[in-house]
Design a protein that fits this description.
Two copies of one chain form a homodimer.
Chain A: H1 8-26, E1 31-32, H2 34-40, H3 45-53, E2 59-60, E3 64-66, H4 67-78, E4 84-89, H5 93-100, H6 103-106, E5 109-116, E6 125-126, E7 129-133, H7 137-143, E8 146-151, H8 155-168, E9 172-175, E10 188-191, H9 194-207
Parallel strand pairs in A: 4-5, 4-8, 5-7, 8-9, 9-10
Antiparallel strand pairs in A: 1-3, 2-3, 6-7
The structure holds a DNA duplex (22 and 22 nucleotides).
Amino acid sequence: MGTKKIPEGTISRLFVYLREITALISVNIRTISSAELGNRVNLSDAQVRKDLGHFGQFGVSGSGYDTGELKAALERILGKDKTWNVAVVGIGHLGSALLAYPGFKQHKLSVVAAFDADTKKIGKKISGVVIDSIEDMPKIIKDKKISIGIVAVPSESAQEAAGKLVTAGVSCILNFAPTSLSVPDKVKVKDVDLSRELETLSYFLANKR
Amino acid sequence: MGTKKIPEGTISRLFVYLREITALISVNIRTISSAELGNRVNLSDAQVRKDLGHFGQFGVSGSGYDTGELKAALERILGKDKTWNVAVVGIGHLGSALLAYPGFKQHKLSVVAAFDADTKKIGKKISGVVIDSIEDMPKIIKDKKISIGIVAVPSESAQEAAGKLVTAGVSCILNFAPTSLSVPDKVKVKDVDLSRELETLSYFLANKR
DNA sequence: CAATGTGAAACGCTTCACAGCG
DNA sequence: CGCTGTGAAGCGTTTCACATTG
């Protein structure tokens, strides 16, 4: 199990492979080569093999990978057997869209709590989740065993929201605010910074040939 | 103008510098060193100098950068003088949230069209934008000189939506669907794959300590 | 003989370190 | 002297290339 340092890109590509393999199985394809799989997800054959190689040997020389076996292996590696509980903080346009997002269930994540500072929103139910007061966060996070917090508040309140989530005990934060959060090392933060993506596009447009 | 290949990270940091410089100017700071600027945005002095170095020489040995000059240079480099028109395809929860997103204006982007396949939605107005039929896309994209298309439809229809946007003439696509789109090389695609971010968190939780 | 698994080479970005300039 | 601009070193990832295997 001497798992060295696995590149983050590898992890995220494994999920892509898993998605594709699942699709292949559903059309009864039993075997696939790294070249063919890479082709379908726009990656090189070498990349596919290197990524898988971090976790063991799954292929058969000369014929490729058994889709069923590979699927099982990927699910095991990626921890698809467990479900994690999620809380969303900040129920504006984005927060509401997140509550309705079907992807959570698909990824074995369950949104079990929503928080907002606006007292007018408290008690309302959106996409089946009741909005609670931020005051009650510590208790609810603990009671419901929530390990992922999603920050969907404006930048100004993002650090505060993150701090409260961390104190309450979450292990990961998905941050939609365009600010860099400071949290203890043991907490994993993933930023989804739409502003940055948009800015990159602007630059591309301004500078293309 | 032999602009070599500029790292994407550099571009995105230039926007960070611009933001900071603008703040500095507003409190009448006229000069700043790479070390001090880096410090304020959590980057090394060398990183700041390398990033700027891609575009010319803006600093003064011994004293640093003139904030006014640097601001002007960054705005020119980043094309902050122009505004780009945007269309959103797929007006579900996410699409609606995007139409309401205030960040567009801040980045000199203007959402001027929205499309949906659902005839019941056509003609409705959301956050000031009227929803049009996908049929009318080619004409509207051309008439309104739209250069950025945002794909906010389910995965199954993402490739089709992207294809139509490209045919209609957009130069960039911001893709929220968890599929890799195939488009001609001249078109820039940025993926915002929420599923992947969530999955990475799942992996982190499943494999921590 | 087709396709894997994997060292070695290439690459791209960041950090270092210092010559040179005001 | 302080700080820039920039080659060179360092590092993590991707790509290459091939010996190996069923």
